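call fold(seq) -> tokens
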Amino acid sequence: MPINFRIDANGLPDGREPKMDFLESSFFDDNGPRRCLPAPAEVRALSGADQARPQPRPVKFEHLNLLVKFGPHVAIAEAQSLWVIKRVLCNEVPVPEVYGWRVDGGDVFIYMQLVRGETLKDQWDFQSTVEKRTICDHLRQITTSLRRVEQDPNNLFIGSINRHHLLDIVFEGEPPGGPFATVKQFNDWFSRLPWLRFPDSENIQDPYRTFLPDTGTIKLTHGDLHQGNIIVSSTKPPRILAVVDWAHAGWYPDYWEYCKAAYTCSYDGEWRVKWIPVFLDPRPEVHEVFAEYTRALGAV
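ret:
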């Protein structure tokens, strides 16, 4: 029987620290303990005019095998997610190794391994049916490992990895929500969001709420499993090198991973219809309701 792993929010690196170095990481092993991570000012200088964007492109330091993701919308919770997934699941869920973080001038800088490969989005059309199946079978192994991770049974919640409010882009621009103690509490909050902009919103009868399941379990969730966040090798046969962009990750109802994956691609496309069900259990009945809410919120 597979071993289930446990993550305790209290065991994460302290997110209140403005500077964190993971000295046990390969960055310091390879470059020596005296090697410092590039300062935020150096990262900004290399970013140039791009740093003025709400979501600047990550900066690469090729010679250091380093990528720095930064900006005002980057959260320390993403670094904590990378740290704990690598620590608990090792290579079962391939993610970039995180080397540290900095908080500077309202921006968070996450220093992580530069994964050299191609996005599945760029490579998908060049894969044979057999290769596509191989990739999706590997994704199934990855998502199965994620879903084996458990919370402390005495500290169950729906929220970001560090037990703070939820970070999914679906909720961008909405009042922060979470953590929630139960799936029902989350569903009650999520289902009310589209109605908050209307007067007397509490008295509006929501026609969709009863279709959100309150009896599911809480699962560790990536929250953005689209082809652009899956890095594969350029060699044949293709291998998944890393699943990246854990900005939306957290503890969510068990339906959330499928609904988000299905919502981030073409409704009638092959990826959604044929391949997502290979690596995620389909929840089409919940997705229809989920889609109504996300469209009402203006989420894309």
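The CA atoms of residues 92 and 207 lie 41 Å apart.
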